[in-house]
Known about the structure:
By secondary structure, this protein is an alpha+beta fold. The chain has 13 helices and 19 strands. A six-stranded antiparallel sheet has the order 12-17-16-13-14-15. α1 packs parallel to α6 (106-120) and α1 (8-19) packs parallel to α13. The protein is elongated, with a radius of gyration of 24 Å. It binds flavin-adenine dinucleotide. The site of flavin-adenine dinucleotide has 41 residues, from α1, α2 and α13.
Amino acid sequence: MVVVGGGAAGLMAGACAAELGLRCVVLERRHRPGLKLLLCGNNRCNVTHRATVEEMLAAYGEPVAGFLRPALTAFPPEELRRWFADRGLRTTVHEDGRVFPASEQADDVVHCFRDVFRDREIPLVHQSPVQGIEREGNGYRVRTLHFSLVAPRVLVATGGVSYPKTGSVGDGQRFARELGHRVLPFRPGLAGLELDACKLVQGEPVSLPDTAVGLFCGGREMARTEGEILLDRTCARGPAMVNASRIMARENLRDVELRIDLFPALQLADLARRLMESPRARRGRKEASPLAPGEVFAFLAGQLPAAASPEAKAKLLKDWRIPVRGVRPLKEAMVTVGGVDLADIDPETMQSRRCPGLYFAGEVMDVDGPTGGYNLHAAFATARLAISAIAREAGSGLAQPPPPRPPRPFRNRR
Ligand SMILES: Cc1cc2nc3c(=O)[nH]c(=O)nc-3n(C[C@H](O)[C@H](O)[C@H](O)COP(=O)(O)OP(=O)(O)OC[C@H]3O[C@@H](n4cnc5c(N)ncnc54)[C@H](O)[C@@H]3O)c2cc1C
């Protein structure tokens, strides 16, 4: 079989294929595999989330959740962690549930895959952008500039269209369209939001650590997000904002007003009291937020007269209303909303419903999740499910992976 794309999904697919005894070649557009993996989680690579399958599915939301259920059930977060551990990559869980390699180095994840490829002698051909996939006989011809391959089964794992320098430029969606699939329009998911509040930032970015954000359209609350907001002079990022951008893209929300509670752990009256406190009174008390209300109010100064009552100031801190002026472009987004229509893919196998023998995995499909390891998990789990289905279909007799080899001692490469 041929795997097109050597990113998160393609690397997992190649590794699983070899472990199931399938002959496979991985074709990668760029000079090295996993370029986007290296950028993940600020180069630390948040590979998954510590959560049950049901919790994961709730976080993706529909229609992605329904589609991912079989893949996640077959490969839940703890199985993924075990999969990595069995291949020498230990992982660690942060307080908020995000899972990283214990070394907190993204390139250890890529090295882990490369070790499997080397040990199993899986051919990985770099600098081989696939130009087209055409039906031929009972299979497909996969054409690159310099050679072409014919295979009964092809897995398309070419990613979304964000961060195009990493190699994902929308080729897989084009191949899918040429082969008769519907492709849903691309929109930026997990992108920065442009807000007037960015003008308040004078120098360094400002972190507002624990917030609860309502997304309102025409005065109606459509969704909520929570977590950190990171404001710089261009846009607002951080989980609360990028997750809001994904919801806006998924739900096609326009003219969104954000109503931000900067101190969700405090009632209005408590917050007003805290605003009147002296710094001395505050000292020694354990706060839910690392920021003092007065400090945050000082940042918002200008939104209300300094002489405003503590109640008015507290109300601003609990219900700061800001219209969204724009969303940063797709090339800066962490994920692409849109892609190959899920209705054209069988969620039990990842096989196309239109082209037997053609499979999809990862972000090339209309699959995306919130920030926190959900997107990589979806790429890994869909790739593994596709390969299990191919192995079953190809009659390799190995519907389940063989017992793992003894773990390798963890190698920190620095
Ligand atoms: C800055 C940033 C940080 C992120 N951080 C996280 C995180 O911490 N946790 C998380 O869960 N998600 C994160 N994501 C999202 C995550 O990286 C993606 O969802 C995931 O990589 C998708 O995997 P994929 O294999 O589908 O696509 P990709 O990883 O994009 O891989 C696609 C591969 O296909 C290759 N390719 C494309 N076209 C062709 C062609 N024609 N021929 C041959 N090869 C081709 C590309 O070169 C690329 O190597 C982040 C994304 C970004 C941009």
